[in-house]
From TrEMBL:
PANTHER family: GLOMULIN. InterPro entries: Glomulin/ALF4, YAP-bd/ALF4/Glomulin. GO terms for molecular function: ubiquitin-protein transferase inhibitor activity. Pfam families: Kinetochor_Ybp2. This is Glomulin, FKBP associated protein. One of its GO terms (cellular component) is cytoplasm. It comes from the Eukaryota.
Length: 536
């Protein structure tokens, strides 16, 4: 009986040290174990494996059962009781066997599969393979990379379902398998992200590099040729889900923006052979083209980019990174056509909560209006009712006349410059932009409250200056250290002279705003009067 043969081999090996196990012992164990599986003694084999006395032998030799076990599992349908028994055996082997040997055994099965069995085999072994990889202490990054590369190499020859019917049928299981592979990779992505959060210098580790290779391969296949449009009748499109997951991994590992905007920098090459290098560069170009399509056409991950960027621009303590993020934001803006720019500007004006960023966006709006007015064809997104709707977000004070004008000075100056441009460039008789239709609302919601706010702010700061000067005359020393609050923020401890400099600087800002405001109002008055005179 096959079970008796297996027990005899195990008993003989139990008296040996692990180092004394011979190749012959492994072969005999595999043959006897395989016979147990094929002759219907799976339940007895499971008992042998679970027996505590057999742990050392199973730890060293159990991985040899992977090949016949996989064949048996795939021979039965999902709901078959025998399949469930084989799966329990597989689970026990994963728990008990030497991780290194088991890893090689599982990978060998994936490598040897072909045809219609590819996706079935991969999906069967992904969970055991993941468990084993998480146990590995040495060369984990290499092993994860090898696993993902092997899996993708096996999937790549399979045809990508394209039509609605093909996607729904998923005849070879590719749709399901691709998303299962992403789930397989997630614990390793989480490990990279966790380490990146611990240290800002965690940028170029082996594990991160292997996961990046996997993402690039996935962009090339299956996503480059996959049907990614929403299909009626398919609630969750498998390839859209897969695309979203791949973009999400790149975003989590902080590689999405560098790949999309800085891909002119070539990554480190591993090839000495120029022909191989050229092939890799071609594959990389295809992957990057697919990524750009996913972002700028299908809009995967598009919502995350402006917010990641604004945080760096406004909160990062490193100056060159703040400047770099500003450059990337402009590159990002330039990727869009007019409608996309319009939507992005609205989004950033509502969510950035930073006067400097809002001022920068308003300057971009002005540039787009200028292009619309100077091009041969009209741009409906930056003229007419669309522009007026956008101006409602631009030409206003967040808190009316009580707005902190110093804090919002960048935004206010940009808004005034935009309004000045519109009044100069667009005649009331033409009214291409629609601004003259809204001029009464602009005066009510923006210009008049700004006048009141300026008068209040200037009076407050002038009184503060007068107070500081009187205190200085009453004190023995002008270098007395004291505190000052400006724009709601407590300034570092300063001497009276330093405080006066800050207060005068604030007054200068108010004067600058007031001079531009006066010029805008003058231009409006002149244009309105000219039209009235013409009508008379």
């Amino acid at each position: 009986m096959a079970v008796d043969e297996l027990q005899a081999i195990i008993q003989r090996c139990q008296i040996l040290e692990e180092a004394d196990f011979k190749g012959e012992d492994y072969d005999l164990f595999q043959v006897a174990g395989q016979k147990c599986l094929e002759d219907g003694y799976a339940a007895q084999l499971l008992e042998v494996i679970q027996n505590v006395k057999n742990r050392v032998v199973i730890k060293n030799m159990g991985w040899n059962l992977i090949s016949p076990l996989v064949r048996c599992i795939l021979a039965y349908k999902q709901e078959d009781e025998k399949r469930e028994l084989y799966l329990k055996i597989l689970d026990q082997l994963v728990q008990l066997c030497n991780p290194k040997e088991l890893f090689l055994g599982l990978l060998e099965q994936i490598e040897q599969t072909s045809g219609e069995k590819v996706c079935q085999t991969i999906m069967l072994l992904l969970q055991p393979l993941q468990t084993v990889l998480l146990k590995l202490q040495n060369k984990k990054a290499y092993s994860v990379g090898l696993s993902l590369a092997m899996i993708m190499d096996q999937l790549t020859p399979l045809p990508v379902p394209y039509t609605k019917q093909q996607i729904q049928e998923d005849k070879l299981g590719l749709c399901q398998c691709c998303n299962a592979v992403v789930d397989f990779a997630k614990p390793f992505v989480n490990e990279v992200v966790k380490n990146m959060e611990k240290s800002s210098e965690y940028n170029d580790t082996e594990l991160k590099e292997e996961l990046l290779k996997f993402c690039m391969k996935s962009l090339k296949y299956p996503l480059l040729t996959a049907q990614l449009e929403q299909l009626e009748g398919i609630e969750e499109h498998p390839f859209r889900h897969f695309a979203a997951e791949i973009v999400g991994i790149l975003l989590d590992m902080r590689e999405l923006m560098p790949l999309v905007f800085l891909h002119h920098k070539r990554r480190r090459s591993y090839w000495e052979n120029q022909e191989f290098e050229d092939v890799e560069q071609k594959n990389s170009a295809d992957s990057l083209a697919c990524l750009s399509y996913l972002m700028f056409v299908q809009h995967f991950g598009i919502n995350c980019l402006p917010v990641d960027l604004v945080k760096v621009m406004t909160l990062c303590p490193i100056e060159h990174l703040r400047k770099k993020s500003l450059s990337i934001l402009q590159l990002f803006i330039d990727k869009f056509e007019a409608e996309g720019k319009y939507t992005l500007f609205r989004c950033l004006l509502k969510t950035s909560n930073h006067a400097g960023v809002e001022g920068y966006i308003i300057k971009n709006i002005k540039d787009q209006i200028h292009l619309s007015l100077t091009k041969a064809h009209d741009n409906v997104w930056f003229t007419g009712h669309h522009l007026i709707s956008l101006l409602d977000l631009v030409l206003l004070l967040p808190e009316g006349a009580e707005t902190d004008l110093l804090q919002y000075s960048d935004r206010i100056m940009a808004s005034l410059n935009l309004l000045r441009y519109l009044v100069i460039k667009d005649c009331e008789s033409d009214n291409q932009t629609g601004v003259w239709t809204a001029i009464a609302k602009i005066e009510k919601n923006f210009l008049k409250p700004l006048h009141v706010g300026l008068n209040m702010s200037k009076a407050h700061y002038e009184a503060e200056i007068k107070n500081k000067k009187e205190n200085r005359r009453g004190s023995l020393c002008s270098n007395t250290i004291c505190s000052l609050t400006v724009s709601g923020e407590k300034m570092p401890a300063m001497t009276t002279e330093m405080q006066l400099q800050v207060l005068h600087s604030a007054l200068f800002t108010f004067d600058l705003i007031e001079s531009v405001l006066a010029r805008v109002e003058e231009l409006i008055e002149v244009k309105v009067k000219a039209v009235m005179d013409g009508n008379i």
